Amino acid sequence: MSDSDKTEEIVDYFGECVIEEVYDPALFGANSIIDLTTKNSIDQKNYSVFSDFTEEQKEKLKELMKCTTIDIIYRFLEMIEEHDDEFKIVIEKGEETYSLTDISEKMGSEIADAEDEEGWIRKFSEL
């Protein structure tokens, strides 16, 4: 395996964790609240107003939640990159250690969700 393939595998593994453990659960939770299918009685009470929304309004709210979630993750990754001297995400693979910001071209762009880009969302999201 070439160094390029190895570093891409490491970046993708981190991305898979971000999508499976942050992005998908956050959107699943938001969508279940918007659809009022959540089992959480407090959320059902607090967000009962959504029952008055049309399907189009609910879909637009879900789109907003998706865009907001992507933006938050993007900005968080960019913050880590901007403060690389202070914050380090270090990946250990066998005997080797990699700085995530050193092996990623641009941290925030890894999550890309544009039609023509193959980012973490397209690769790993189940939503």
Please describe what this structure looks like.
The chain has 127 residues and is mainly α. It is built from 5 helices and 2 strands, in the order H-H-H-E-E-H-H. A two-stranded antiparallel sheet has the order 1-2. A hairpin with a 2-residue loop joins strand 1 and strand 2. The longest helix has 32 residues. It is elongated, with a radius of gyration of 18 Å.
Helix-strand layout with pairing:
Elements: H1 3-34, H2 41-46, H3 55-82, E1 90-93, E2 96-99, H4 100-103, H5 120-124
Antiparallel strand pairs: 1-2
Helix pairs in contact: 1-3
What does this entry show, briefly?
The protein has 127 residues and is mostly helical. The chain is 59% helix and 6% strand.
* Sequence of strands across the biggest β-sheet: 1-2
**Can you give the mean pLDDT?**
89
Class based on secondary structure composition and strand pairing: mainly alpha
Distance between the termini: 31 Å
Largest β sheet strand count, sense and barrel closure:
2 strands, antiparallel
Percent in helix: 55-70%
**What's the total count of β strands?**
2
Number of helices: 5
Kindly list the characteristics that best describe this protein:
127 residues; mainly alpha; two-stranded antiparallel ribbon; 5 helices; 2 strands; 59% helix; 6% strand
